[in-house]
Each structure stands twice: as C-alpha cells, then as structure tokens.
Amino acid sequence: MTYDSGKEAFTVALAAFIVFIALFQRLKGKDRRRLSPGPRGLPLLGSLPFVDRNLHHYFTSLASKFGPVFSIRLGSKLCVVVSSPAAAGEIFRDQDVAFANHVVPAAARFYLGNSTDLLWAPYGPLWRMLRKIAVREILGVTGMKAVEPLRREEIRRMVAALEAQATEGSAVNVRNVADFFPAVAPLDPQGLGRRLRRLMEWLDGYLDGIFERRRAAMASGEKHSDVLEVLMELVQSGGPHESAFTSNLQDIIGASTDTTSTAVEWAMAELLCDQERMKEAHRELDAVVGKDRFVRESDIPQLRYLSAVVKETLRLHPPIPLLVPHRPTSDCTVAGFSVPTGTTVMINA
Ligand code: HEM
User: Whole-prediction pTM value?
Assistant: First the structure.
C-alpha cells in the first residue's frame, strides 16, 4: 500500500467513524425524546449536586413540576422516578417480569462476588427457589408460629435497649458515590464495599456456627421443630446447598431489622410529639393488655388504635420510601414514556 492510498483509507475510516458517531448521537437523541421529562442537570454529574438529603422529598418536588413519571440523571446513571399508583401498577402488575430485578448496589457487589441472594438475584430458577424457601419455610404461618417465643424474647430485649437509648438521638446517612458512577465502583472509593464485606463475612461465620451446632444436635437425635430444622432437613434430603439458606437468612435479617426499628422509632417520635394520642394509645393498652404483662401477638386484633398508629406511621414515614430500586431487563414503556433496559427505576411511595 502506497503512502497516499493509506492516507485515503485512513480519511475514509475517520469520516465513517464521524458519521457513525453523529448517527448514534441522533438516534440517542431520538430515544431521549421518548424519555419522560425531567431536570436537565450538569454534564457528567447530572442532577447529583442538587439532590436533597431526603431524596424522596426532592423527588416529590420534581414530580410536581415534571409529572408522576420523570427521568433524572444521577452521575452517569439514568433514573426514572414513579410517583403515581397507576404507573406503579404498570410496572409491578402489568410488566412484573421485566421489572423483577433489583439494582444491585456497588457495595453489595463487593461481598456477593459471583454468588447471589434473594434480594439481588436476577429473576429466574434460583430466585424462585430462594423466594419459595423464604415465603413457605420462614415467613409462612407455621414458620412464624414456631419462633413466636423467640420473638417475644427479642421484643423484651428490644424494649430494654430502647429504654437504655431513650436519651440518645443520631442519624446516619450513607450514600455510595460508586452507585452513581459505576466506572469507579471497582475502586470502592468510600470503602463501603469493604466494610459491608467484612460485616457479611462476620454474619456468614455467625450463621455457619448456628448451622454447625444444629447439625451436631440433630445427629444426636435432638428435635426442635423450628425453621432451622426444616431448612436443614431440606438440605439433607438433597435440596439446595446450605449457602442458599445462609444468604436467605442474611437477607431476612437485613430486610427486617432496620425497617422495623425505623418504623418503631418514628411511631414513638410521633406519639411523643402528640400527648393526646399517646394517652389514647396508653388507654387502649391498659384496657386490652393491662399493666402486668407485655403485649402479645394475639392482642393485636384488639389493639385497633395502636394498629392505626402503625399504619399512619408507615404512611407518613415509610422506612424505605423509594423501595429497593428496580432495573428493567428489556426496553419498556411506562405511562407512554420509554424506560430503557438497565434504567434505575425508583418508586416514590
Ligand atoms: C416496616 C417493616 C418493613 C418494610 C417497610 C419493608 C419494606 C420492604 C421493601 C420496600 C422491599 C422491597 C420490595 C421491592 O422493591 O421489590 C422489601 C423486600 C423484602 N423484605 Fe421487607 N419490609 C419490612 C419488614 C420486613 C420483615 C419483618 C421481613 C422478614 C421477616 C422482610 C423481608 C423482606 C424480604 C425477604 C424482601 C426481599 C423480597 C424479594 O426481593 O423478593 N421485610 N421489604
């Protein structure tokens, strides 16, 4: 090849590349036009510098400007925020399979590696099996009844801990930069992934120890008739590997502790600020339970005022106001707007 023909080929390749980029940008532009409206944001950072500490409040104010389905760029991530029951229905009822996957946070990817668990597993046979175990064996009526005495004991401990902490008050707000700039996620810039991995390794060891002790107890003929025994029997009868249960138990511990304690703290805070309603709740507790014992689960149907307090607390202060973000596995349409594959979809409950 002569110098001139080489130069010509290079010029043609460069021109083709420029045309390709221009076409790509145009196509992308067209696709963007089908996206729901939303704030423009800054190059590279998107709207990240403007977000409020209370993300759901910020999204509520944007929804009043852009409508119940709006798009927003946070870092390099395209997010769609949904604030109407009708649009949420389109996602969770009409297109539940396409939207079944959660967005796996950068920190969770650090401890999960190639393995997965109920909360982050992609929709498929493994997820279905983990979910069946959680719903049938752990959260089902029999499973819940089997551990009622344990729950009662834990409630006693929690009340004691609340009493001890009554004078303390602190808030922690941890956001991971890596969730908005996936390119830097492997570097774990804030060390949250490493911290979470250490915590999960500790929890793994703790649960392994429980499994180990129970295996030995079962081998010596002990019977417990509880959730753990059901799970161990499933493993022994050739069911899933024990690690599937460990990850399920980890999820349930994670999913149930912070949510419940946040709700209790808010209920208490609201009642402390409203002495009339606090008195009403006390009156009902005195009438139904009396002063000589703790509340039992069987009292709940009679505690109608307290149940209303709980519902109102969850309405005013949902512990996970944006739920766990979902990620469509195919290009979808919600309220007539395009939601491309991989978008982070948040429901502002
Ligand atoms: C006030 C209490 C609670 C609130 C507000 C709450 C809220 C939530 C939310 C918003 C999700 C994500 C749903 C989604 O976007 O797909 C979730 C998932 C989950 N929660 Fe709860 N939760 C609470 C208590 C509990 C408790 C007590 C348990 C277990 C004993 C539990 C177990 C789970 C599990 C296993 C998942 C994952 C389900 C899946 O991905 O299929 N939660 N919860």
Answer: 0.76
